[in-house]
From TrEMBL, chains A, B:
Superkingdom per UniProt: Bacteria
N-acetyltransferase domain mapped to chain residues: 36-171
PROSITE patterns on file: GNAT
InterPro entries associated with the record: Acyl_CoA_acyltransferase, GNAT_dom, NSI-like
SUPFAM superfamilies per UniProt: Acyl-CoA N-acyltransferases (Nat)
Region (Disordered), start-end ranges: 11-32
Keywords: Acyltransferase, Transferase
Name the record gives this protein: GNAT family N-acetyltransferase
Keyword S-adenosyl-L-methionine: no
Length: 171, 171
């Protein structure tokens, strides 16, 4: 079955704990670009994900660990450009969570060829909606300095009541 | 079987994915106070946990959600004061994780009657050691302003390379 049909097949739920993959189409005028879909389906070619991360200059990570991280995240959202029966991974984000109070969003990325068209915003809004659906009310993330304003526009606040993000790294 | 014996029983592993509970004793001179143990065992009376959180003034949370959060955290560490065959919950912390790259520590608490004796530090060092054992190298947390220095002494750094903790809350 071709990819986007599977999106709308109610029998297809790759992540039972999360229910149906809930694919959604991102409306676009530019028919040359193909159609854009979001989904929580985890059927991802990890080499394609690596290419996407390479395209924004992120350091390579061992595929074995990326596989584990994708499996063990609470929510994984991918964005696909679909033309005919071919699809291309153009966006990605994931969140860890305790399934109850807190979630933390990691690895938000849109392919450079599709940035600044509203896709990053739509991806984050989709994540927020999904997490709210599970009644998670404390959505957190660690923003690189150049994207703080991107998240601020989405309603994220910096250091509320003086709460500070802190990191521990091995020596 | 009494509580602290079960700690040292190699057959007792409440969290198979995390291996043995790895109980450890915190050395103390004060024999009046009983013995202090850490463990990753999740056999917790949730009402006792609520009492501990009450004791430091945290807002009450629905027990149903606390249960889910304890189950779905990657790591849960508890600290117990043991006298005879009675135990009392005196410390708690937990971490969410993608089991690969990142972990985020939540709900770090030591009972007021036992604060300032090095237990909080030992609890955090125990968590760091456990997470490092699973090869997780990016340990994060969100610190209330009055405890930023507590975490700093443990090697946590604030906003490294300008990375900022951000929060989204429902309206
Ligand atoms: C950050 C990123 C996901 C944004 O995605 P995008 O599709 O380009 O963003 P959008 O087009 O949806 O932008 C939404 C809004 O944010 C603004 N915005 C986008 N990137 C921004 C940035 N870096 N700084 C400030 N504002 C930004 C847009 O102008 C737009 O504003 P508007 O709603 O007023 O029109 C994307 O640029 C990216 O993948 N960057 C590289 C990877 C990265 O840095 N990820 C974040 C790691 S923490
Ligand atoms: C924060 C908390 C866990 C610390 O535990 P503790 O057992 O009292 O701390 P320790 O005795 O192990 O202290 C370790 C070191 O940190 C220092 N320290 C402890 N609390 C501190 C604070 N609030 N600010 C600055 N330094 C602090 C101690 O002086 C000690 O320093 P040293 O190593 O130089 O001797 C405990 O006070 C607590 O439960 N507080 C209420 C709940 C809370 O605020 N949790 C954190 C939410 S983000």
């Amino acid at each position: 079955m071709v990819f986007w049909k599977r999106f709308f097949n109610p029998d297809s739920t790759s992540s039972p704990s999360l229910g149906p993959t809930g694919a959604e189409e991102f409306p676009t005028d530019d028919s040359d670009k193909g159609r854009i879909f979001f989904t929580t389906d985890r059927d991802i070619d990890l080499y394609e994900l690596e290419e996407l991360c390479d395209a924004v200059g992120w350091a390579r990570r061992p595929i074995r660990k990326v596989k584990k991280a994708v499996e063990c995240s609470f929510l994984v959202v991918t964005m696909w450009e679909v033309r005919g029966n071919r699809r291309r991974l153009v966006g990605f984000a994931r969140a860890t969570s305790d399934h109850a109070f807190n979630a933390t969003v990691w690895d938000v990325v849109i392919h450079p060829s599709l940035q600044s068209k509203g896709l990053g915003k739509a991806l984050m809004q989709y994540i927020i909606r999904k997490l709210r659906h599970y009644d998670i009310s404390n959505i957190t993330l660690f923003a690189d300095p150049q994207v703080v304003d991107f998240y601020r526009r989405l309603g994220f606040v910096l250091d509320p009541e003086g709460i500070k993000g802190m990191f521990w790294y091995p020596d």
